[in-house]
Amino acid sequence: MLNATAPESTDPSDAPVAPLVLRGGSVVIEGRPIVRAVDFTVRTGEFVALMGANGSGKSTLVRALTGLRPLASGTLELFGTEVSKFSDWHRVGFVPQRPGAGSGVPANVWEVVSAGRLTHRKPFRPLSRTDRDLIDRAIEVVGLTDKARAAVSSLSGGQQQRVLIARALASQPDLLFLDEPTAGVDLPNQQVLADTLKVLQGRGVTIVLVAHELGPLEPLVDRAVVLRDGRVIHDGAPLSHEAVHTAHLDTGHAHHVDETPAPDHLPHVTSPFEAAATRDEEKN
Ligand SMILES: Nc1ncnc2c1ncn2[C@@H]1O[C@H](COP(=O)(O)OP(=O)(O)OP(=O)(O)O)[C@@H](O)[C@H]1O
């Protein structure tokens, strides 16, 4: 007699593709190794906090993971595709650290958030009804509907941060990076951020967030990865602010990395954002 129950698949190709796999990733800036041989995998739907002291390399790592900084060595795969061949950038959202969504341009909230739909539109086509609905909804999720036509420059720092988050939401990413979204943001705004990220987490979005302290975000975090001097010193349960600073390589959760210094001459990995990143640096 035939068994009607289908046998469970053992085919490894059935496993969901990890949104992010970095192997031996190093970043060198002006000859100085800033990120050193980091292995970092993020699974679908995970919420990972990237922690560590000032200057430990968190922002640099995030910029490498978003294709904004070339890797000096190592490999990066996004949704199973090597980064130089990856083209589904609309699946990746990034909320940068720097405040000031308006950045001197007299744009209103709705205009800035609408930029989140740019990667989805065909060139020179006006926004569709769907685009407009997604923009309105993103503004609603971050609680700024009543400010939709306000100049971004007229908003508080925390509200401006929410505008940047709404812009990322409007692009409906599957993988969202946020670089210190709570820095300099008051507690009510941090709570709005936590509520917003909870909505995204519920939708299955994978989230990688840089933070010094988790605050209201703590209950959402599945895993903390702590960097020190460009290396991973902890990869496991979320840590308190104090524990981040006292974490040692022998915590038990620690992920040991190769101590070999990055070589001087390294292969160059290009990305579609590299030109933009260079321009960005020149401005700094
Ligand atoms: N464009 C750059 N040019 C020169 N050095 C840089 C550049 N970007 C980063 N660095 C250096 O790399 C190191 C790591 O910086 P990074 O901003 O990645 O650290 P971080 O952990 O995010 O710090 P913070 O918490 O202060 O934001 C620092 O010593 C910084 O000075």
TrEMBL record:
Residues 254-284 are annotated as: Disordered. Gene3D superfamilies: P-loop containing nucleotide triphosphate hydrolases (3.40.50.300). PROSITE patterns: ABC_TRANSPORTER_1, ABC_TRANSPORTER_2. Residues 20-254 form the ABC transporter domain. Keywords: ATP-binding, Nucleotide-binding, Transport. One of its GO terms (molecular function) is ATP binding. Pfam families: ABC_tran. Belongs to the ABC transporter superfamily. This is Metal ABC transporter ATP-binding protein. It comes from Nocardioides yefusunii.
